[in-house]
């Protein structure tokens, strides 16, 4: 049986975000055609949902070992150094995602404390920003899973 890792919550979240973006955009096009004006909230929500979709999709790609990378060096190395390189790749990715979690969480907290409102609709800005550290944590979890799977040989080194 072939090992097939999955990231179901992120798939659902990404699918939901894409469906809502499509509906909002369609509604905006119809409204603009019928009335000559557009719906005010569409751009703000669409940008927010696009960020959610991007992070959710990146998390799914991490879990499925679908991110692109240059595998020439990995293929050229013997098993021991190859595992060290895989570990190093995972560590570098974890550092970047850890920084996103830390600074995204810090920004979200500051926006909450300041009571900043979004420019378009006047909603609390932290509602939008909260998804950045949360989805970066999801990506971090998927990165750890992918790295452990690659190190144990459950996942092929090539996507």
UniProtKB/TrEMBL annotation:
TM spans (from-to): 12-33, 45-63, 84-105, 125-144
GO terms under biological process: C4-dicarboxylate transport
Keyword Lyase in record: no
InterPro entries: DctQ, TRAP_DctQ
Main location: membrane
GO CC, alphabetical: plasma membrane
Location within or outside the cell: Cell inner membrane
Purpose of the protein: Part of the tripartite ATP-independent periplasmic (TRAP) transport system.
Topology in membrane: Multi-pass membrane protein
Entry keyword set: Cell inner membrane, Cell membrane, Membrane, Transmembrane, Transmembrane helix, Transport
Family indicated by similarity: Belongs to the TRAP transporter small permease family.
Subunit record text: The complex comprises the extracytoplasmic solute receptor protein and the two transmembrane proteins.
Origin superkingdom: Bacteria
Residue ranges of every copy of the Tripartite ATP-independent periplasmic transporters DctQ component domain listed in the record: 22-151
UniProt GO molecular function: transmembrane transporter activity
Phylogenetic lineage: Bacteria, Pseudomonadati, Pseudomonadota, Gammaproteobacteria, Oceanospirillales
Transmembrane listed as a keyword: yes
Natural source organism: Billgrantia endophytica
Name this protein carries in UniProt: TRAP transporter small permease protein
């Amino acid at each position: 049986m072939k090992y097939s890792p999955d990231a179901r919550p992120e798939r659902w979240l990404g699918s939901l975000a894409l469906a809502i973006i499509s509906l909002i955009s369609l509604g905006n096009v119809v409204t603009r055609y019928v009335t000559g004006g557009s719906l005010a909230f569409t751009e703000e929500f669409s940008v927010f949902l696009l960020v959610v979709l991007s992070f959710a999709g990146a998390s799914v790609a991490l879990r499925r070992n679908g991110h692109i990378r240059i595998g020439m060096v990995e293929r050229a190395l013997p098993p021991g150094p190859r595992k060290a390189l895989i570990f190093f790749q995972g560590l570098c990715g974890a550092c970047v995602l850890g920084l996103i979690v830390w600074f995204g969480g810090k920004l979200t907290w500051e926006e909450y404390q300041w009571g900043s409102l979004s420019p378009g609709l006047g909603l609390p800005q932290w509602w939008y920003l909260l998804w950045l550290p949360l989805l970066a944590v999801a990506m971090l979890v998927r990165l750890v899973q992918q790295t452990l799977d690659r190190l144990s040989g459950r996942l092929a080194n090539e996507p």
